Amino acid sequence: MPNPVYNQGPVLIVEDDRNTALLVETYLQREGFSTVLAHDGSQALAVARETNPIFVILDIMLPGVDGWEICRTLRKESEVPILMLTAREEEIDRVAGLSMGADDYVVKPFSPRELVERVKAILRRARPVALQEQTAPISYRGLELDPVKRTVTRDGRPIPLTSSEYKLLYALMNAPGRAFSREVLLDHCHQESVAVIDRVIDVHIGKLRQKIEPDPSAPRFILTVRGFGYRFSDDNES
């Protein structure tokens, strides 16, 4: 019987190698997850839209539409957590995947047990954001974040954010003036792993500034703490 914690929807496994897909499916089902499979990019998007998965395990090298494009498309449509599963281990590929909105990156060959634990950990991290005691909207100089609706607006206009961007902005806006190290901010976005590096936070912050700042070259919301990390402006700022 599926674990009630995971019964809101299936895990979508997107993998063209059917043996690998079945292996991952077997280990997930042992832990109480329901699963659905897709073996190419076009099928993956169709299945995701039809089943509304709670998590996506996404291979990069797929026939037809590749994993990069699937990740970009899913991020425009939802905040579903995404773990990229691939044989490509170069750092630039890891940074690219994470900057597109993926929550983690696992290189083949991999341990199925470790993969399942990463899925669980990412879901654990995702749930507290929606269950924060802070439920009132957080506002600052026209920028508003609503923790209940998980929406962000500036001067009343909606701003679409990826899951990682939302988590970063929530952490910063919920503690205005507090300086966060890159390491701490990583913990808000990604499960700890060798695939996640400090520079990813700079990528996320850069994209976030492009979306929320009136002038990204002179940010007034997210401020850099040189040699350390970032902080959100507060009422004491000039």
What's the quick description here?
This protein is α/β, with parallel strands linked by helices and 238 residues long. It folds into two domains: 4-130, Rossmann fold (3-Layer(aba) Sandwich), CATH 3.40.50; 138-232, Winged helix-like DNA-binding domain superfamily/Winged helix DNA-binding domain (Arc Repressor Mutant, subunit A), CATH 1.10.10. It is built from eight helices and twelve strands.
Describe this structure in words.
- There is one protein chain.
- The protein has 238 residues and is of the alpha/beta class.
- The chain has helices spanning 18-30, 41-51, 67-77, 91-99, 112-130, 163-173, 182-189, 199-212, and strands at residues 11-14, 35-38, 55-59, 82-86, 104-107, 138-140, 143-146, 151-154, 157-158, 179-181, 222-225, 229-232.
- It has 2 domains: 4-130, Rossmann fold (3-Layer(aba) Sandwich), CATH 3.40.50; 138-232, Winged helix-like DNA-binding domain superfamily/Winged helix DNA-binding domain (Arc Repressor Mutant, subunit A), CATH 1.10.10.10.
- The strands form 3 sheets. The protein has a 5-stranded parallel sheet, with helices on both faces. Strands 6-7-8-9 form a 4-stranded antiparallel sheet, with helices on one face.
- A hairpin with a 4-residue loop joins strand 7 (143-146) and strand 8.
- The termini are far apart.
